Amino acid sequence: MLVLLPPSETKSAPASGPTLDLTGLSAPELTPARSAVLDALVALVGQSAAPHAAAVLGTGPSLADEVERNARLREEATARAATVYTGVLYAAAGLAALPPAAARRARDQVRIISALWGAVSPADLIPAYRLSMGTDLPGVGPLAAFWRARLPQALDPIAGDLVVDCRSSAYAAAWTPPPGVRWVQVRVEQQVGDRRRVVSHHAKHARGLLTGHLVRYRGRAPHDADSLRAVAAGLIGPQVLAVELGPEPRRGARTLTLVVG
Fold it and tell me: Which of 23, 44, 46, 237 is the most buried (most CB within 10 A)?
């Protein structure tokens, strides 16, 4: 099983820690690509006027410090990705404070799709940065297309029998599981009276709950959509009202819907 997560927009900058070692990240075959994106990002911020860099990165004045930090990424302190990525999904998943066995499962079975790193494990040491997958980065080009050509070498071999896809659409564009791998996209709907609606904040929280549940699960890891639905049903309670599995599609991903109140 491989669980795919998006990064968080908000990140916690480590106060101390070792500086970045690209060769120490998981999937070392991505090192040249990571270095190319990192160099382009540092150059953009270091050589451009602040308004130009902010415009390319799609940020406003309130994020000026985060944009400026990009110029120093090779010198910034690093920490586990599980602690650098913050926000609703990561708070719900609790990846930063897992017991040892669950932390090992997260290290091996969870990958965070990143505009800067391609894909990282929760255990990888990274600095806080500001870069989104929708960016057209000078010197590299549109990042989703850049990583789409490179992520298969890193993710195809570890996809296993089942890919549980919790990514947003921008990050889903960077990699598609290879043929023969069971692919399940996680959808979240909120029950309001007799109607349902798709939501954003609740979706992040519910996907985080599912991720934390999967890495803490002590039984056999899910290997197909039906076993995923059976394990996910353990979430049913005050926060998750129902877990529903969509029909088998002719092609593409099957859908697992978490219904929240």
Answer: 44
Whole-model pTM: value is 0.94
- Cα torsion at 208, 214, 218, 224 (round to 10°)? 170
Between CA 125 and CA 145 the distance in angstroms is: 25
pLDDT, averaged across the chain: 93
CA-CA distance, 134 to 173, in Å (whole number)? 10
CA nearest to 67, candidates 40, 36, 42: 42
Q: In degrees, to the nearest 5, what angle opens at C-alpha 213 toward C-alphas 210 and 214?
A: 85
d(C-alpha 6, C-alpha 110), whole Å: 11
With beta carbons less than 8 A apart as the criterion, state whether 5 and 174 touch. Answer: no
| pLDDT for the residue numbered 195 | 86
Kindly list the domain boundaries of the chain, sorted by start residue: 2-260
Residue 60 has pLDDT above 70, yes or no: no
Q: Which 3-state string (H, E, C) describes the chain? A: CEEEECCCCCECCCCCCCECCHHHCCCHHHHHHHHHHHHHHHHHHHHCCHHHHHHHHCCCHHHHHHHHHHHHCCCCECEEHHHHECCHHHHHHCHHHCCHHHHHHHHHHEEEEECCCEEECCCCEECCCCCCCCCEECCCEEHHHHHHCCHHHHHHHHCCCEEEECCCHHHHCCCCCCCCCEEEEEEEEEEECCEEEECCHHHHHHHHHHHHHHHHCCCCCCCCHHHHHHHHHHHECCCEEEEEECCCCCCCCEEEEEEEC
